[in-house]
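All the exercises in this workshop are built on plain-text protein records. A record pairs a protein's sequence with a compact description of its fold. Backbone structure tokens are a discrete shorthand for how the chain folds in space. Once this layout is familiar, the rest of the handout is easier to follow. As an example, a complete record with its sequence and its structure tokens follows.
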Amino acid sequence: MTDIPAMIDKLYAASGAGDFDACEALMTDDFKITEADNLPFGGVYEGKTALRDLYAKVMSMMSIKGLSHSHLMVGEDCAVVMVDMELDGPPIQLLEMFLFRDGKVCEIRPYYFNADNVAANCS
């Protein structure tokens, strides 16, 4: 049985430290992230390097000063986490849905509370 809360904490810690090799060890080979099309970085990112690729794109567009997660809701093969992004302007809040298969993360689907705020913070 997968310890979903521990896996999510490891994923956030590794990505926050820029250790994408550690992130990729937690993912399936067909991992994907789907960002809404109305975001400046919208689209589907696929494969083990998807998170690495998305971070590079987002960090080139936004000045994120900090990231925290809380309010974890866990199901049998899924979880939802509230995420707060600290910026120079108003913070960005979102929920990230994680899907799991065979003890690894197979998909992340972020849901932003205010996509206009995201676009306003992108350059």
User: Anything to note?
Assistant: The beta strands are 27-35, 43-46, 66-74, 78-86, 92-101, 104-112. Helices lie at 4-16, 20-25, 50-61, 115-120. The mean pLDDT is 92. DSSP finds four helices and six strands in the chain.
